[in-house]
Every structure is written in structure tokens, then in C-alpha cells.
Amino acid sequence: MEYDKILEMLGRKEFLVVGKNVTRSDALDKVLGKARYTADYVPRGTTLLKVYRSSIPHGIIKRIELDEALRVPGVEGIYTGADVTGSNQIGYALPDQPFLNDVKVHYAGDPVALICARDEYALEAASEKIHVEYEELPPVLDVDASLAEDAPLVHDGGNVAVTTRIRKGDAEKGFREADVEVSDTYWSPYQEHMYLETEAAYAVPERDKVTVICNGQSPFLIREKVAHIMGWDLNQVRIIQALTGGGFGGKDDQGPLVAAYAAFAAHKLGRPVAHVWSRDESVKFSNKRFPARIRYRSGANSEGRVTSIEVDITLECGAYANRSPFWLWRQTAHAAGPYEVHNCSIDGRAVYTTKVYGGSFRGFGDMALHFAAESQMDKLSYKLGMDPIDFRLRNVLVEGGRTTCDQVLDHSVGIKECLEAVRDASDWASHREPVRDGSKVRGYGVGLAYHGISTSRSTPDWSAASLIMNPDGSVTYRTGIVEIGQGSPFGHAKIVAEIIGVDPAAIRIELPDTDSTLDAKPTHGSRGLMLGGTAAAKAALKLRESMVACAAELLEVPSGRIDLAEGRAFDRENPGTGISVRELAEEMYVRGYDPAVHGFFKAPERFFDPETGLGVNYSVYTFAATVAEVEVDTETGEAAVLRVWPAMDCGKAIDPLMVEGQIEGAVSQGMGLVLMENIELKAGHVINPGFKDYVVPSSMDTPQIEPVIIVEKPYRYGAFGAKGVGEPAIISVVPTITNAIHHATGIRFNELPIRPWTIHKALKEAGN
Amino acid sequence: MRVNFGLNGAPVTVDAEPYTSLVDMLRDELDAKSVKKGCEQGECGACTVLLDGSPVASCLVLAPQVEGRYVTTLEGLEKNSLMIDLREAFMENGAVQCGFCTPGMLISAYALLRDNPHPTEREVKRGIEGNICRCTGFTKILEAILDAAERIAPE
Hints:
The complex is a heterodimer. By secondary structure, chain A is α+β, with helices and mostly antiparallel strands.
């Protein structure tokens, strides 16, 4: 199926709902306050669960003493690793993460026991009565300490969890061809997701089954992990994904853990258990954005072409590898940025420390990578005396170009158009000199990004969806892609509506439920709309076939003449002759036309050479360019983002308003990382676990976001040409702001976040 | 202890521990599930309700403090014409993503427009300063509130 021909296939000149702004169907419940999130399902009086965690960052568990805690009134049960019947291992990429630690603890917060009690007061009292005797080991608190020769081992296999490499062309030869060269080291820190809804799960046990209502990002991964811990088959675990109050990647990683704690305890206890994290727990113990140190050397010739890059990435895993192999690979594979560079030498390593572990977060490594890559591009342009945008335009990927991994991009490459659009919209040429106004100085910066959609290398990738035409013409839609704010399931409904010619509002989107929903793989990697929507389209095309065949029989016209639109099936040559979908639906049952269908989409094969790192890594890439105006107060060191001009090649905007929403939200979250947000640790303990001390952008920080420019270079093999938006939106924001700060102040800040006192100090040192 | 107060226009009596927070009392005892718990530190705004007409973080109010007073949650404003305007503006402007901040945000926006029907953008920003949204970046929320202000029928 090639979606650039979809209109032709549907026999239409233009889309009915795709590409138009339609109010999303979940909005009404949400504005009425009737939308139900996980904690809203928990009946009053349900047993509560709390995870008892290690108080030290590194040590051997000698003894766990529970007797006193079990005697606390209201305590109903306490479980440790010794009680686990299936596997006590819940690591994602590597088997390095115990479900309940009973041998060793790897960070201050490692789960040691699960306490069940009638209320929070009993949980707290019991926590204080559990005694764990440790043989303390020296903590490992940063990557250099971890890589030191005599470093204490965090895990038995050594402190390097995984390595990556790319060798393309001849990097040294490329540097010999360069007329200018720049090198620097960039640091990108932990970032906390701070979704408004904390992690939660509500588990209801049966004899040989457990049902969990929860808020992850992959019901199927959660099912797999729960079954693994229980030692059960997949059909003994039912995961229902409630509406979810933000994910940003964090709940992809935490979802399986939280659900498994609740499911395991509910099964042991033999009654329902609710497990809702406090904000304090969420900030201290959930995975953060992986910190990374990137050393980057790049060279360019006097014609303004980048000739070579040499990149060295050290990723800090924290206590567990978690997603680091995939994260590090993504940084490695995207290392050149959205540019054609023939000579690349890239090495990466992910390193354990005894701190809260990193993990999935919107952008998945590409924020840190593009911060480095785009700072380098800016520096090269200044060194060559070229305009930063002109210089980039000489190097950007175009159709037929080759990525860092030597993947040929034969279509759907719109970065040049994005960059030209933001250059013109921002009137870039008129703002090449910083403007001083009293103590304040303003500058303009540019940043580009590209981001491979969905999983990489040869990881199998698929999606699935199902549709039921009910006898009254209403439609039931099921997808395993979850609603976490981004609205992908509603995007699917629009795709279905387009194909079967009904109002999107007539399509009811059921909550993902692993007992009745096909495995669609996770809602991550910006794949929810692109992969999930393609499966939806496949299902809808099957249903359409059934509907058309039935209508042709009823209307006694050839099926080729039947169209479906506005809730009717009709003869194209004689539009007055038709039948409503309501009537048609009943006839489908009566006459034996299948009213229930599923769509299964297997993504195109990719391949990859592990020796060189070269190959076809991602099905397709989304591209983004932004320009921002930033103001720095030279007296206080405060920086504020005033205006942002965003552009994105998202293939096809299924709903432009929702694309804008993703981009605007990403500007805020990206700005948070650059200017405000910082997890503070003291001896391995997170010490700012709340909105008060971990400050995220508020309404007062909101910049003026100029009209979002949408460039549409459709992806031929999926979802009406749509490519993922959520992650690409945030990646370019980071270097755009840092490059604007440099433009305003003449100073480069290579460590994030860049806070007022840092700027103030640097300005003072520069004699400003 | 028994606490008597007005909830969404009706008198209620609840048996609550003196240390119970208003948000817990509303959610657990009175099924006002529109009130969300985002931080329990008074910092995120998800639990915003009106207490005697003023927006407050209900996680910072203890049950005994509402004795004899009036509490309004989103449930109580379902048929209110200003809230209807706000709801429609939120939906049409794309101001709703995950929806977890939405009830508290709507309560703050309601209090703002009730007292100042034609605010400037800066006044809107101030009015929702205590309500964190991590999805939208606030842009469409600000647009929605300004749009709702346009919709308010002249008196």
C-alpha cells in the first residue's frame, strides 16, 4: 500500500477529515472532569501498597527484618524477593534489574520490599519498622569515577553496560580536508518528566489471573513483565490502560514496574491492591532523562561543507542499563545531525553509577546529541565567517542524501524547506546583530533536528488495530496505542473516518485492554500515529471493502461505483441513490458481510551491520527547524525565550491543531531543560523531589510562539503519509535556545541547564 | 469529627479525621473525582477548587477548615454559562491534551474571568500561574481563555 495514492484509491479529490482540525473525542470528558485516570478507579477502602526502598546508594543486603513491621496495626502483608515465584528480574534491555532486591542495592531507592496496609499511616509506620542490614559499598557517583581503573563494580560484568560505534568514510582524511576545525564537550543532565499524574496501578486478583488498571505506555510490555514475574502465561494477565496524565517516555519505563508491584502483591494477598505514587516518590525513584557527556570534533572546508566528525558519547545509565542500549544507539546513529557528512567516526558507551537510573524521555538521546551537533554547526559557521543558516543549508540532507549511518533517504526529506521557512518567517537576515536595551540584550538562534521514527536497526516492528461495525452503524475501535495526552488514538479514528466515510465522533475508542486488543507494540519512539495509524488504515480498508460489497448488492450497482462519505454509502454516478451507514450496518449482518476486522501492519524490513554501524536504521525521519529570540538580562543573568518560530516536516498533518499542540508543549519542556530544570543530588540521594524545588515552566514563562509552519513531505508507506511529531518537536528547541544565548552574549554554555547565576558569572568573567 | 459545609450548592456532612486534606475528603468521601492529586504540596494546581468563591489548592486545606464554608468543584459548575464557554473554548482551541491539569485549570480560569471578564494576556498568565500543564506549553490554554472571554455575553 502506497499512501501517496490513497485519494485515488478512495476515488476522491480531497480529504474529508484528514488534514482538518477536528475537536478530539476525549476532550469533552476531560473538560467535564469526568475523564477517569487510574487512581479514579480505586474503590474506597482498597488495600494500599508502598514500595520499601533502600536508604543507601550501594551495598550488600545482609538481612531483612520484617517481624516488627508486620505487627504494625493495619499492615496486611509484606513481601520481599524471597516471595517471588516467577522470575525476580525485570531489566528491560539487560537482565541487571531485580524486581525486589534481596542481594544488593544499586541506588538509594532500590525496591527491597512491598508493604500492603489499610491506609497510608500504617504504610508509613511499617516502613519505619523494617530493618535492613547492609554491608555498605562505596558509591559510584559520576561517569569518571565509574570508568576509573579501581572503580567499585556496580554490576558484576563491569561498569560499561554497552558500547556503540560507527565508522563511515575516513574521519582522519576528512579532517585533513578541513580548513577549520572546532572541538568541545557538552553535558546534558537528568531531566524529570513531571507528568501531572504520578505512576499508578490498581490490581484485582483471581485464582489464576490478575487484572491491572494502570498508566504505562505499552500494555503489552506490561503484560509480558507481569507474567514473567508471576511465572504465568500472557493470557493470565489482563492490562487495562486508563487515560493517562502525561507520559513523555517515563511511564513506558515505570509502567511495567508499578503494575508488577501491584499485581504481585494483589495475588499474594488475595485481594485488590492500589499503588499510587506520591510526587516525592515519582521524582526520587522514577527514571530520568539519561545524562550524557558528548565530546564532539568537527571540520569544514572553506566552501562551507562539513568534511568530518568525530564524536565520543558517554551516557550515564545510573543503577541499571534500562533503555541505554537503544538510547545510546540513537545518539550514535544521529550523530551528524540532519546533514550529509561523508566521514564519521563515532564511539559510545553507557556507564553504570549508583544513582537513580536514566531511561526513556521524549527525544530519546537526540536532545543531548543535537545540542552538541548544532552547537558545533554554529561554531563552524562563525569560524568560517558564514551565516549560520546559509552554512546549514549547504549541508542539510536532501532527497537521495545519506544519513550518519549511510542510509539513503529516497523520499520524505523536508529539512531544507523547514529551515528556509523559519529563516523567512523570523526575518532572520534583519536580526544578525544582537540588540542591546539597557541591561538587556537580545539575540536570535537557529537549531535543526531529525529523528528516526519508531525502533531502530533490525528490531521487528509492527502494529495492530481492530474495528467493529455495530448493527446500528456505530463503530467500535480498538488500538493498543495509548492515550497519554498526545491524541494518537483520535488520529487513528480520523484515518478510519476518512476511509469508511463516517463522522470521527461516531467512532468510539475503547481503552486498550490486553484481553481484547491486539499487540500494537509500545506508544514510544513517536510511532503511535505513524505505526498505529497505518494498522488502523489497514483495518478500515478491510471494513470498507465489506461495506462497499454489501452496498453494491443492496443498491444494485457495481462496487466500483460505491463511495462512502458523510455516513452514507452511495452510487458515485447517481449520488441520490444511497443508503445510510446505519441501515447498511444491519444489512451487513443480515447478508453475511464481515462487520469485524483487524488490521496488522508490519513495518518495512531494515538492516544494519554491527561492525560499522551502517545500514537502514529507521523507516523514516521527521525533520524540524526552529528559530528563537532570547533576551538575557546582563545584570541578573536571567535568560528568557521571547519568540519562537517552529517548522516541521511531519509528512502529513492528520490534525494540524494537534501538531501545533505537540510543538508548543515541546518548546516549553525543552526550554525547561535548557534554562530551569535540574535534579539535585547529595551523596546519591535526590534532594529536590517536588514542583517547589524542581522548577518547570509555568504560564509566566510562555514565549510567543509564532504560527507553526508545517511542511508535508509524505512518508509513502504509512498512515496517509504522517510521520511522528512528539519527540522531533522538542529536539531542535534545545540548541535553538543555546545558540540564541550565544548570539546575545557572545558566550557558549556547554553544560545544561544554563541558569541565571551561571550566565551572570560568565558575563562577569567576560568583562560584561 | 463531623464537618459540615456546602458542596456545589448542597449541604454535606462528612465524618473525617482532623488531619484529612480537603482533596482526599472530596475524592474519597464525596466522589468529586474531577479534583486531581498532582503533588499534595500545593504546587501544581491540579486540585484547585473554589473555597467561598476563591481558588485554593485543596491539598493544603484540612477538613476542619471548611466547616461552615462553601466548596465548588468542576462538578458544581457543569451548567454554569461561563464554565460552558470555557469548556467549549478549551475544546475548540486544542487546550486539552492529557487532561489531568484541565479541571484545576478551568477552575482558575473561571475565577479569573468571573472577576475580570476581559483580561489582558498577561492577566491570564497571572491567573493560571499556579496551575502547571506539562503537555501544552500553555499557549493554547491562554488562547482558549482569551477566546472564552470573547464569548461572554455582554450583561
